[in-house]
Write a structure and sequence with these properties.
This protein is α+β, with helices and mostly antiparallel strands. The chain folds into two domains: 113 residues; 95 residues, PH-domain like. The two termini are 28 Å apart.
């Protein structure tokens, strides 16, 4: 993607140069904007798969332990051992090379291991504490398989690739600029801030785009989305005296619990209305 930028030092923005930050964001090309989306989705995928990968290394180890614990060497023992080692191997793969297809592979493997861990001990005629532990592990793995498959379904039609070093740098530079801005709702009508997932985010509504960065790090999260991808759903009755509007903020496949001050809620609604009217 065309992300070649002049290699000049970018000063950390202050209260006096947030206008420059806004100008830089508004000047992003379509290719740059799409690249920033890809960086976000790739980092989310890598973070999620690495977190689950470490967990499933442990679960795979327990599955292998269940195969060895007091069992004779037979076909059922071999099946459980192979499945446990497969979990370990797939977990290591996820940690090193995260990709969308990995979500599907892992959900299928988790389902297979979960079913076996529930039925295998019964087929072997085992009982006692080991059966309870392994069956509980199987139920956990079935639940995880369902969850991982849901994540895959949301992303199966997306093209998520490993960002280039230049794309990563652009993402990090813009994130740093946005979180260091200091301005209020009165300073700019395009400025937006929200509390999402208990963290403070700020950024701008720029044409049909929205760019928001999470203040607290790590990790460095910056959401970039187009107007059709953005919705705010609330069951709250909003009146002129309502100070905070709470609901769910959706950015395409991403859904976050959110709270907006009424000024920013009105600004978001107006932005969506203007875009829909065009």
């Amino acid at each position: 993607m065309g992300l070649r930028r002049k290699k000049t030092a970018v000063a950390a923005p202050t209260a006096t140069n947030w206008q420059e930050v806004k100008s830089q964001l508004a000047a992003l090309t379509s290719e740059q904007f799409d690249a920033l989306k890809n960086v976000y989705h790739y980092r989310w995928l890598a973070s999620s798969m690495q977190r689950d990968g470490w967990l499933n290394l442990i679960l795979g180890g327990i599955t292998v332990w269940g195969a060895w614990e007091g069992q004779s060497f037979n076909s059922l023992w071999l099946i459980q051992l192979v499945l446990g080692l497969a979990i370990v191997g797939q977990s290591l793969w996820m940690l090193s090379k995260p990709d969308t297809a990995g979500l599907l592979r892992f959900s299928i493997l988790l389902a297979a291991v979960g079913i076996y861990n529930i039925t295998g001990p019964l087929l072997r005629g085992n009982n006692g504490t080991t059966v309870t532990i392994v069956a509980g592990l199987g139920l956990l793995q079935l639940w995880m398989a369902y969850t991982v498959y849901g994540l895959y379904q949301k992303r199966k039609d997306m093209t998520i690739t490993k960002p280039t070093a230049e794309q990563d740098r652009l993402y990090d530079v813009l994130w740093a600029q946005i979180i260091n801005m200091s301005l209020s709702s009165n300073d700019d009508n395009d400025y937006l801030e929200a509390t999402m997932q208990g963290k403070w985010w700020q950024g701008f509504l720029l044409g049909d785009r929205v760019i928001l960065a999470k203040k607290n790090a790590p990790p460095k999260w910056m959401i970039v989305a187009n107007a059709p991808e953005v919705t705010f759903d609330t069951k709250q009755t909003v009146t002129t005296t309502t100070s905070q509007i709470r609901g769910k903020m959706k950015f395409g496949i991403l859904t976050l619990t959110a709270a907006l001050h009424r000024v920013f809620f009105a600004r978001l609604v107006e932005w969506k209305t203007i875009f829909a009217a065009k």
